[in-house]
Amino acid sequence: MIYLDNSATTKPYPEALATYTEVASKIWGNPSSLHSLGSQATRLLDASRKQIAGLLGKSSQEIFFTSGGTEGDNWVIKGVAFEKARYGKHVIVSAIEHPAVKESALWLKKQGFEVDFAPVDNKGFVEVEKLADLIRPDTTLVSVMAINNEIGSVQPIKAISKLLADRPTVSFHVDAVQAIAKISTENYLTDRVDFATFSSHKFHGLRGVGFVYIKSGKKICPLLNGGGQESDKRSTTENLAGIAATAKALRLSMENLETFTTRTSKMKEIILEELAKYPDVTIFSGIENFAPHILTFGIKGVRGEVVVHAFEEYDIYISTTSACSSKAGKPAGTLIAMGVEKFLAQTAVRISLDADNDMSQMEQFLTTFKIIYEKTRKVR
Predict the structure, then answer these.
(1) Quick one: pLDDT at residue 237?
(2) How many CB atoms lie within 10 A of CB 113?
(3) Given 18, 165, 324, 359, the catalytic residue
(4) Where is the Aminotransferase class V domain (predicted)?
């Protein structure tokens, strides 16, 4: 099997699984309990939070655990909007956001908020000057993802941070789910970023765990009300085993960042160079200012899901551009926002690499691609 769908989910590290099992079986007390088992759980919860914060260069008081990226995005978009509603009800998100952000923004519209979508250029990058034109006196939130999940474009977070430097009343949220342990932290978690969301299973942790960075002093409506966990911002019993496994996975991934970048970028360059030789292949991802591990392309006249299943017959696993919306059969929203015609956008498929992949797998992928390309000649 060759797995090339790491942007959808990654295989958990054995060490992370071992941590989960050990904690779940040995430290199963509720961190909110007053007895010694609760205190033991609290110490591990605090240590995990401190480790994650340290890896990001932040304070442990700024890390709040969630069930994953979708929950985190929903919480920030809705929680900040309602927290600051008395100051303004205008929100800006980019046109290429993950559905967790985009759909949350559209939900806000139904609640009486105004939402603008910041446009992107034909390569998939937010146009900072046009974003600036959208900012109004009643704008309370700007949300732009760090790395686009569909084509891998690395968004100009530093430039947007500079734009918002003299606008302290505007909260800045970054969906960093695809960025953490893939590119340098300084490229997406600047001092101007107020909120950022993360998901454990994108960096070899477990599904059902994530965390939100909330800059000290920034306010947000609580996600859940109840027992007061997570500083009264998300009241529910913490998934201690999952959180400890997340801390372990993040440490290993951050230590592996340089290797990951070097290996995946080389493999991506080889595939890109070879695919470019085929006349009926459209390449949607680039190299400069793109993530090292994401490459999106399409075979003209062949729908993406057809190509995905064709590769699966050879035990090679890729995806259409967004795992969260692929089963809906919709064309890639990012490509449409870039101005790509619908018939081309519907052909898009994505490969997303990991350091565990190797050159022999890339050779097998390219050999299989040639077979599939020839088989689709009549369709093309």
Answers:
(1) 78
(2) 21
(3) 324
(4) 2-365
Q: Where are the alpha helices (DSSP H) in 214-298?
A: 229-232, 240-255, 257-275
Last residue of a domain, one of 232, 251, 270: 251
Indicate whether 288 and 237 sit together in one domain.
Answer: no
Sheet holding 171-175: strands in order across? Answer: 63-66, 210-214, 195-199, 171-175, 139-143, 90-94, 114-118
Give the residue-averaged pLDDT of 340-353. 96
Range of 344's domain? Answer: 2-8+257-378
**Rounded distance between C-alpha atoms, residue 365 and residue 71, angstroms:** 35
3-state secondary structure of 179: coil
pLDDT at 160: 98
pLDDT tens for 284-327 read 999 999 999 999 999 999 999 999 999 999 999 999 975 555 55
CATH number for 34 = 3.40.640.10
State pTM to two decimals.
0.94
* Cα 143 to Cα 177: distance, rounded to the nearest angstrom: 13
Return phi, psi of residue 327, to 5°.
-70, -15
pLDDT in tens, 216-230: 999 999 988 998 888
Concerning whether 221 is annotated as a catalytic residue, the answer is no
Q: Are 155 and 146 within 8 A, CB to CB?
A: yes
User: Please, are residues 189 and 196 in contact by the beta-carbon 8 Å criterion?
Assistant: yes
Residues 34 and 88 in one domain: yes
Q: How confident is the model at residue 330 (pLDDT cuts 50, 70, 90)?
A: low
Residues 200 and 268 in one domain: no
Q: For helices 240-255 and 14-26, what crossing angle results, to 10°? A: 150
| Residues 112 and 233 placed together within one structural domain of the fold | yes
